[in-house]
Write a structure and sequence with these properties.
Elements (H helix, E strand, L loop, with lengths): L7 H26 L10 H55 L7 H24 L1 E2 L2 E2 L7 E4 L5 E9 L6 E9 L5 E5 L13 E7 L4 E7 L4 H10 L1 H4 L1 E6 L2 E6 L7 E8 L10 E5 L9 E6 L3 H5 L1 E4 L4 E4 L2 E2 L1 E3 L2 E5 L3 E7 L1 H4 L3 E11 L1 E4 L9 E4 L10 E2 L3 E2 L17 H52 L3 H27 L4 H4 L2
Helix pairs in contact: 1-9, 2-3, 2-8
Length: about 500
Amino acid sequence: MSRINTNVSSLTAQRVLGQNNNSLSQSLSRLSTGLRINRGKDDPAGLIASENLRSEKAGINAALKNAERADQVVNIAEGGLQEVSNLLTELQGLLTTSANEAGLSESEKEANQLQIDSILQTIDRVAGATSFQGTKLLNGNFDYQVTSVNAGVSDINVRGAKFDTASQAVEAIITQSAQQGGVLLSFGGTSLDLNDTNGTFTIEIEGSKGNRELQFASGNTVAQIEAAIDAVTDVTGVTATVSGNVVKLISEDFGDSEYVSVDVIDDGGQAAGGGGSIATYAGDFGDATSLTTEGTFDSTAAANGIRDDGQDIGGTINGLQAVGNGKTLSVTSDFLDLEFTASTTASQTLGGISAFTITGGGADFQLASNIDIAGKTSLGIQDISTRKLGTSSLGYLDDLASGKSFNVVDGNNLDDAQKIVAEAIDQVSSTRGRLGAFQKNTVGATIRSLGVALENTTAAESIIRDTDFASETASLTRNQILVQASTNTLSLANSQPQQVLALLG
């Protein structure tokens, strides 16, 4: 066919040329930007997926920076705690030196007290000066606030708590009572009757701290026996009380590690029928219904030793199985990490106890890309000032200052002072260990995990959105050739109607 008004070949060539120009333009855009998807029409589904992945990358990058910042905060806190630990170690040495009373002059004691005062002041100064961007780290700023504290609860230590409400009630259920170890010596009278012999009543008393052999003569009263046992309590860990004709031997502390053991090495010929028996409680200590006589002083059982062990408190806290240590109940989980000490009455009363309520505080670190309670880590750092280091039962570190209960100048209770310092060292060391575990395990693992997640997310986003240069350069070459070919074809198609002129002669 030969027509002039309508050149269908030209129209076809124009359409193909336009398509090839679009393809060439797309290849040039992808190669110049490095992106396969530059606008929604390039790949609508791919654009949605890649934008979601980009959002995840932004969250992961921010979480990585948060984890690194958390590591820096804890590093600064650890530096302050390390200095406090060194000061406490020096303080322990000063107490030991000061206990050498016969070898010290009064001026030396006063000099030691000056050093102790200086150490206590420095600890308080470190607690108040250790900060990150103006936020104090060791003065209780990052400690948890608690209210509604039960009268039977003390020495609360909230190490971590995550909750999305205004407050978190701590409810405990005591399922096992805390007990001391205890053995009862019954003498049948207020004084020891060895049947008019010249023998001695010899026993070996042993507790968690050690043992000591004691000897008593006929006529020694139960009060004298009690006094002799109490005189070596620091060696044995066993105290004594008198109830009528009975001397009760009780472990100083509560828990599975505490016990009382009595070996009758020589009964001294105690009068027959005059008592002379050893008893223990099969149930809770002091439960008269479970009192069991183990044997007389001259029995084989007494010679082999009668022992009674203490018992740790047991129970749950907010539905989580708790760990007992003496009268202290603790729980460790991702959402709740705390401990408290129950009073003797509370620790021996089975049932529920509303311990206290956490109303806020702590240091919260966002270590995941998603902002929710699961992605947050909470950390509590207690006040490490001298008025807080120690316990309510032992006393606190500031009691060692001049004019206070345990100052070395007066030589007041240096053994108790040393216990306070030992407890303070344990508290600071525990805090350092907990912060170290947070850095190594929580922060370290988070950084490694987020690094891998960022790598994989970036790779996934790159596959969807980035240009494959090898493939795209091949497409560019193809499109360039097609454009040239379609341009030449259009030129031929446009010249085709001229052939009609030949028909006109």
